[in-house]
Amino acid sequence: MHHTAFSRRFLLLAGPAGLLVRPGGSTAQGTVQGATPQSATATAREAWIYAYPMIMNYNTMYRQALDSHTPEYVGGFNVFRHYAQFFTPENRDVVTPNNDTPYSWSWLDLRAEPVVLSVPQVAKDRYYVCQFIDLFTHNFAILGSRTTGTEAGNFLFAGPGWNGTLPPGIKRVYRTETQFVAALVRTALHGQDDIPALKEIQAGYRLRPLSAFANTAAPPPPAPVKWLPWDEKRALGTDFVAYLNMLLRFYPRIHPSEAALFQRFGTIGIGGGKPFDATSLPAPLRNAIAQGAAQGAAALRQAISTTTSSLGLFGTREELHNDNMKRAVAAAMGLYGLSKQEAVYVGSDRDADGAPLTADHRYTLRFEKGNLPPASVFWSATVYTLPSRFLAANPIDRYSLGDRSGLKAAADGSVTLYLQKTSPGPELEANWLPSPASGGFNVVLRMYGPSTAVQSGDWNMPAIVRVD
Questions:
Q1: Strand pairing partners for 107?
Q2: Would you identify the CATH topology of the domain 81-214?
Q3: Domain boundaries of the chain, sorted by first residue
Q4: CA-based Rg of the chain, rounded to a whole angstrom?
Q5: How is domain 342-466 classified at the architecture level of CATH?
Q6: A single Pfam family, by name (predicted)?
Q7: Mean pLDDT over all residues of the chain?
Q8: Residues 144/128, Cβ–Cβ less than 8 Å
């Protein structure tokens, strides 16, 4: 069995001393009812797993939309920041960066009114996909060349409760359960000479409030939010309740399938907008919640250790069947992965004998004739350093290989990738995917437009074979 090659986040846990105290307002003790230490531990374990992807999503939102001092800052809400270049080892905004489809990032604030996304017409051979992710990390909308075509169009995104008038010119309406959502656009880049064309397409992605699109009066602006500062130790420890309660403010209509869940969560003070001051809780109850958070983190680590592909991890609420552990695993191993209909990610950080991949050895990844990764759009393989999960510097500045790379097949029709830090020789260099100069690494195989066999798990990536 191959070990997963997705991003892995070290799970920090705060002990009872790592508590977030919110000045003013009522105390957490006034919001905790009917919980015994034993029940509080079980409930906190369940709630921590539920909250983990939301909290890690907030980490990204905080850096990209709220903290203007971070290198990832996109400019606030309802604006795009475009990345119009191939990623290199110097790009460290995200881990395991995609080197096939540069990103356009935005965060939408839908509290006051909907937002309209306008996309340009693109060539029929130009792949792009716009992914929209709610605060739970559900992929609630995916549009682009595969799903909505290559023609220009306007798409409206409405938050919960909106029932206004739809203006002419809107191709489709997407509704979300949460008032803040992430927008991640990927646009295929065909080479360095293609960068001007990429920039022109990216400039055609426009976000406008509905009032600006329809040329009507704008509604009053929403009230300012007192966002909690990002502190990973606190957010993943006992204080996860405070972060969760803040985010649940923007989930105004609890989904019917979660009614019983939130009844249980309420016994330890969880609820949209409720203040949470853990220091006001009796020590046994406070320690019980801390113990539950630790148990949730341990359960997540165990689930990660047995997960080998992205299948079943990303999608809508309906596709994930309210499986909160799957959401948590997805957030820990590859936050913002596309749904399987659009792309599937598999990979390995081990060779065929189960040993870790290291720069000290040479390896091959061989695809037999007729068994290349089955993808209707494209496929690619990328090497990342471990544990950083960034691209590995190499003498030929090559960071991925795939079906658009001019790979050379052998006489028997097979295609072999050479994974090593030095050249395999001039006759094989077209198929050389350089590994890092030192240390461990992993390989991620991306398949866009995956076949039915890939989506069902019937196609498997071949084992990586050590050759010296």
A1: 182
A2: Immunoglobulin-like (2.60.40)
A3: 81-214, 342-466
A4: 23
A5: Sandwich (2.60)
A6: DUF1254
A7: 91
A8: yes
Beta-carbon contacts of 298 under 8 Å, excluding residues fewer than 6 positions away, are: none
Count CB atoms within 10 A of the CB of residue 132: 22
Alpha carbons 313 and 457: distance in angstroms, whole number: 13
Residue 287, SS3 per DSSP: helix
Residue with tokens 């089955």: 374
pLDDT digits (tens, 9 = 90+) for 156-188: 999 998 999 999 999 999 999 999 999 999 999
Q: What phi, psi does 150 have (nearest 5°)?
A: -105, 5
Q: What is the DSSP letter of 102?
A: -
User: pLDDT digit string (tens) for 106-159?
Assistant: 999 999 999 999 999 999 999 999 999 999 999 999 999 999 999 999 999 999
Contact 128, 201 (CB under 8 A): yes
Q: What is the identity of the amino acid at 160? A: P
The b-or-e profile of 382-409 (16+ CB within 10 A means b, else e) is bbbbbeebbbbebeeeebbbbeebeeee
Distance CA 468, CA 465 (A): 9
The Cα–Cα gap between 380 and 447 comes to: 7
- Number of other CB atoms surrounding residue 195 within 10 Å: 15
Cβ atoms 188, 146 nearer than 8 A: no
